[in-house]
Amino acid sequence: MSELIENRIRRAQALRMHQTLRSAVESGALEPFQDISLSEAVVLGLVNQGVRHFIGIFGHGTTDVGEVLRIYEQEGVVRTANVRNEIEASHAASMLKWKYGRTAAVFTSIGPGAMQAAAASLVPLSNGLGVYYLMGDETTESEGPNMQQIPRREQELFLRLFSVLGPAYTLHTPEAVFTALKRGDAVVNGRQKHTPFYMPLPMNTQPLVMHRCNLLEFPSASPESKVICADRHVFEEAAELIRSSGRITVKTGGGAARVSPDILSHFLELTDAVYVHGPQVPGLYPASAPRNMTVGGSKGSICGNYAMANCDLLIAVGARGVCQWDSSGTAFPKARQILSINCDYEDLGQYNRSLRIQGDAECVLAALSGLLEETGRAHADPDWLESCRKKRAEWDAYRQLRFDHPVLFDEKWQRPLLTQPAAIKAAVDFADEHGCIKLFDAGDVQANGFQITSDDEPGRTFTETGASYMGFAVSSMLAFALEGGTDYPIAFTGDGSFMMTPQILVDAVRYHLRGMILLFDNRRMAAITGLQYAQYGSEFRTDDEVEIDYVKMASAFRGVKGFYGGDSLPALKLALEEAYRHDGLSVVHIPVYFGQDEMGGLGVFGDWNVGNNCERVQRTRHEIGL
């Protein structure tokens, strides 16, 4: 065995025992100055920050990193998951952070693999999740075009590309690793709104050795820094604004995901407000609570959009103001002012007529609650809560009518099929009864899903509406296996999303995933077909006539089991029970109705700046002037 490998083994063993480099050095297990290659320094540095999961695909651009990971996994320090697609790797890493708070590293080769991971990094970018990306890169000596580099004779093109997405640093020199790790730590761990960090690794610098590298120079993981405004005058102004308003709506976005439900509930009582949530945060405030008007936005609910359209004060908590969150800026036509609460000042600046309090959502709500208790609570217009409750009852009845008519005749399939609302409702109820975690893919399934889900606690449903990345739900299931299978995930996906990233059928077996995919099949991109009909009256190239036997497809992977979901609610419930008993990944194929019958969907109650709607929606937004 070479001295290089012996020393790597010794360092890995010391890290396994002491967790951090500082502890290993201070205990005497490691000498502070060691000869270390750049590849090992990157792995050491990430492990020192608590990264234990490395997920991706090796190629000629990362073979040296792979050799380091081989030894560190052999010694029980890290777990390396080789998957079938870099997009899948990124989605799994995102879910590890989102659900479990685990920072992971995605590794790729140079070129197409790096580009795939970069595309998928839109998910953590949009949802405020810290993930490291290690990408192979062209050599620094530019001896000629490197295979799979961007084919232009310019320097560091991948760095320029990744820097458009977020913070990035090319490891052009081994000793630059400390700066790269510090900058990565600041955005992946330290700041409150996390973001990915991209580290291109030139192939020729990876094996270079740093002599007498100081182990104490490696940064450890920073605690998250919670920002809060210290200007009491701003809080007093906000309290007075609340007391002077008669129709208050509190709406939360993804930045409020970690607010204590008790603090939120107390704030709603003190402000006498109604509550509306974005699709990312169901269960933050119980769905069954009288003040909960459910989801609002372009694809919101009757009651949620009513509460937004008729409030005179909107309190926006942890929101970016995404187009579908606020109906492309048209959702609050009667709001005299907006009280905006966010840790990110760029997000605070979304609206005019806004009083802005920068800070951690929970801290700000707690401080405002304390001030309202001191100076007097708010008392809303007595008709406000009652009028909203009537709209909530109207919405509940509207949904129930569709649940009570679960089957419609489908022209394409030429037989009666379950509607998507009825099938999703049955599956949501099943998931809740069995304590499963619900994951919703982009598209029609996602939109119906967040209109149906009625969680009474947070963290039970994950809906990736930040980037609306098709295939996220099924790929992200891998995170549950990597975390040890403590939770049972159910991915709700459409046929379009599933066929974009079906690699989980392989990796579920490889990593012993126990979970379920519910595949709602209407042989089309139904969300876009629906838009086409609503806007132009005709469908164009969003239909699909190809018949796929998904039960056979799933069962072709030894360890995965396929089930037919049936054409009725009793048949579906039986299939769900059987699929849940399978010790592995189950796929339940559920053909669902698509057509013009209003009982086949849950409708649209908000605006969106798309297609031939743009002129009207933009005119309305400018008239409102937010």
Q: Biggest sheet, open or closed, and with what strands and sense?
A: 6 strands, parallel
For this structure, what is the CATH class of the largest domain?
Alpha Beta
Low-confidence stretches: none
Mean pLDDT over the full residue set? 95
How many H/I helices? Answer: 25
Please give the alpha-carbon distance between the first and last residues: 68 Å
Q: Assign the CATH superfamily of the largest domain.
A: Thiamin diphosphate (ThDP)-binding fold, Pyr/PP domains
How many domain units? 3
Which architecture of the largest domain does the CATH hierarchy give at level 2? 3-Layer(aba) Sandwich
Strand content: 15-25%
Strand arrangement in the largest pleated sheet: 10-9-8-11-12-13
> So what's the overall shape?
globular
| Overall radius of gyration | 26 Å
Number of strand segments: 21
Level of helix content? 40-55%
Can you offer a commentary on this structure?
With 626 residues, the protein is of the alpha/beta class. The chain folds into three domains: 3-217, Rossmann fold (3-Layer(aba) Sandwich); 232-391, TPP-binding domain (Rossmann fold, 3-Layer(aba) Sandwich), CATH 3.40.50; 412-594, Rossmann fold (3-Layer(aba) Sandwich), CATH 3.40.50.970. Helices cover 41% and strands 17% of the residues. Strand 14 (407-410) and strand 15 form a beta hairpin. Helix 16 crosses helix 17 (444-452). The longest helix is centred in the middle third of the chain and has 22 residues, at 382-403. The termini are far apart.
